[in-house]
Amino acid sequence: MSTAILTGPPVAGSPLEADLRTLGFDVRTADDAASAAALLAEVPAQERVALVDPRFVGHLHALRLALTDPRFPAAAVPGALTAQAAARPALARAAGRIPVGAGTAHLTDVLTETLTDSLDRDDIGLHRVELGSLVATVALTPAQREEAREAVAAVDDEAVRLRTAVKSRDGFFTTFCISPYSRYLARWCARRGLTPNQVTTASLLTALIAAGGAATGTRAGFVAAGVLLLLSFVLDCTDGQLARYSLQYSTLGAWLDATFDRAKEYAYYAGLALGAARGGDDVWALALGAMVLQTCRHVVDFAFNEANHDATGNTSPTAALSDKLDSVGWTVWGRRMIVLPIGERWAMIAVLTAATTPRIVFYALLIGCALAACYTTAGRVLRSLTRRARRTDRAARALADLADSGPLAELIARGAHGRGRTGSFLAPAMAFLSAAVLLVWVIFENDPASWLTVGVAGCSALLAGAAVSRPLKGALDWLVPPFFRAGEYVTILVLAARADVPGALPAAFGLVAAVAYHHYDTVYRIRGGTGAPPRWLVRATGGHEGRVLVVTVLAAALSPEGFTIALTALAVVLALLVLIESIRFWVSSGAPAVHDEGEPA
Question: What is the pLDDT, as a whole number, of residue 318?
Fold first, then answer.
């Protein structure tokens, strides 16, 4: 139970106390600043506490936003202030600094505003709620109270609550085909006490059942799979809308939301491949190719965003053109659709699954994602080349973490330290060569399962170490992680395909899925401000260059059948290693409340 302290002149007939109890607060009253400070000291330090002026007039949802959102240590609207455990000491100090006696009435007349200003100056992360059309004010006179009540009656706060439960930036399919009714499903869930985590889990289970339907290889199974995949996406939208509607944000929810989308999509790819195999068509290479392409697309998004997360300037004419295009209505939706975001992509997959074959699904997916990747990457390259900005140490550190360099690349980087100029194109050039040398060899060599391939992988590792030998602050250094991902993933795909034995490609699919999970986990940790996974985990997984060396050695040393078994074992070991550490972190008290609010893909 949280505690709300009403401090100020009482107002007869006000529904404020009932509203606060509706929000889960135990309500107490204080006659003045001194008694409010005394009550603050009585509330256990680990509890949320709120200070509310009894003359507050406003929407219930305005109070909800100010007093119950768990993401902020302190939050305020006019007339109401809350502090969680992290901000309680600052609130106590602010209350203790308020003088008493003659000449201080202006400080305590609206005590909440004085304390809010004090917390703002203390820089403890106070969040001032953007009310929009909602009303929150302190009515000091009967006339002001009547005017405020009329303003409250003029705005339906439930309609505002429903509207703001939907992400402000979403794809065309999600905005016009899902959100118009999923928001009401979110409200239905909230009124029945369901949590976003439960809806997220239901979405995952629905997608897994859809994958099972696709794996049957029958037309009925494919139709059911398409329908269930769309239902899974509806639930996927609902969980975030439920979190925003009821302000139920949590660290566990952040982890589930950050990982389940990829787990659902890639499990569905596997289901399609299994279903095709039942019909005599082997599309595992296409399934793995689709997963590789989609993951590399995300790495481009993540790396570019991190490189420019705190850039100190943006003078790119490309960015100016993009902003200008966004001012023209239809271009906004066209540009959002062309990148094939998750809504459009899942709708395409679902319809094609029901109406065609898995092979056609993967062909369409590969073509669509390839075009989207070319469009987004080209635009980001142009922005990077034409903007004048200084990249920070934080951005360089994030890119180095996303590069996922292991012990071998670290050793090479130390040996090459100082030989390149920070800010040049040397890093992306070296990363490109690292991937290109390896991929050209394994793709065009007659027998890539040889010790010569191990030597080429060693050369690739040398180039990879050189690429990360200096801080990644260049205009195009955000390309380094995507080049490394493409080199590693495609090498595994090609070696498994060239093994030409049953089970090799499914084993490679599992291995790439485990490694991709590790890379997504890295992204969301960085986004939460907690940094990358611990170095011991990166070293234990070998880094991208270490894993490539291990896979090439296994291909050279073992028979195709033995290589398949080894890939399977490696996939299991890596999956257990990264999952155990990831689960430990995301359920710990130090995990950030990260929510995927802006990624269109």
Answer: 56
492 token code pair: 């595994």
Q: What pLDDT was estimated at residue 392?
A: 86
Q: At 421, which amino acid appears? A: R
What's the Cα-to-Cα distance from 226 to each of 43, 230, 444, rounded to whole Å? Answer: 53, 6, 37
* DSSP, res 160: H
Q: Which of 228, 171, 222 is nearest to 203 (CA)?
A: 228
| One-letter amino acid of 177 | C
What pLDDT shows up at residue 601? 46
Burial 137-172 (b: 16+ CB within 10 A, else e): bbbeeeeebeebeebbeebebeebbbebbbbeebbb
Q: What is the pLDDT of residues 101-154, one digit of tens each?
A: 545 554 567 889 989 999 999 889 899 999 999 999 999 999 999 999 999 999
Q: What is the pLDDT of residue 8?
A: 79
pLDDT averaged per 10 residues, the chain (length 601) = 85 89 93 84 92 95 95 94 94 83 58 91 92 94 94 96 89 92 96 95 97 98 98 96 92 80 95 97 97 96 88 57 60 83 96 98 97 93 82 90 95 72 81 97 95 97 94 94 98 96 96 96 86 92 97 97 97 96 84 51 46
The rounded Cα 80 to chain-centroid distance in angstroms is: 31
SS3 6: strand
Report how far residue 364's alpha carbon sits from residue 175's, in angstroms, rounded to the nearest whole number.
23
CA 95, distance to chain mean position in Å, is: 37
Q: Indicate the Cα dihedral angle 88, 93, 96, 98, nearest 10°.
A: -110
DSSP state of 218: S
Among 377, 440, 431, which Cα is nearest to 544's? Answer: 431
Contacts of 416 (CB under 8 A, 6+ apart): 465, 466, 469
The residue assigned the tokens 């989609």 is 294
**What does the alpha-carbon distance between residue 150 and residue 114 come to, in Å, rounded to a whole number?**
27
Residues in the chain: 601
Tokens for 425, please give them: 């194109």
Q: Give the per-residue pLDDT at 503.
A: 95
DSSP 92-122: HHHHHT---STT-HHHHTTHHHHHHHHHHHH
- Look at the block and give the residue holding tokens 């979403």: 170
Q: Is there a contact between 567 and 551 (Cβ–Cβ < 8 Å)?
A: yes
Task: Give the whole-angstrom CA distance, residue 161 versus residue 243.
Answer: 12
Q: Where are the extended beta strands (E) located within 130-232?
A: 136-138
Burial tier of 375 (Cβ tally within 10 Å: 0-12, 13-18, 19+)? middle
Q: Dihedral sign for Cα 564, 500, 366, 434, please.
A: positive
- Among all chains, which residue has been given the structure tokens 């603050």? 40
> Which are the contacts of 571, defined by CB distance < 8 A and separation ≥ 6?
507, 510, 511, 513, 514
pLDDT of the residue at 115: 92
